[in-house]
Amino acid sequence: MDYSVYDTADFVCNDSFVAWIQHGEQADFWKTVEEQYPEKRAAMSEARAIITAASSLPAFTLKDEVSAEIWNNIRKKPVTRWYRAAAAAAIFALATLWWLMPQQSHKKDFVYRQLLRKAKVEHPVEVVNEGKKPMAVSLPDGSSVLLQPGARLSYPACFSHGCHRKVFLSGAAFFEIYRDAKQPFVVYANEMIIDVLGTSFAVKAYEEDSLVELLVKTGRVAVSVQSTDQQVILTANQQAILTRSTLLVDVTSLQEHKPLAATLETYSFVFTDAPVDSVMKTIEQAYGVHITYDKALLADCRLTASLYDEPLYEKIRLICKALEASCIIEGNDIKISAKGCHQNVIEN
Question: What InterPro entries does the record tag this protein with (predicted)?
Answer without folding.
Answer: FecR, FecR_C, Ferrdict_sens_TM
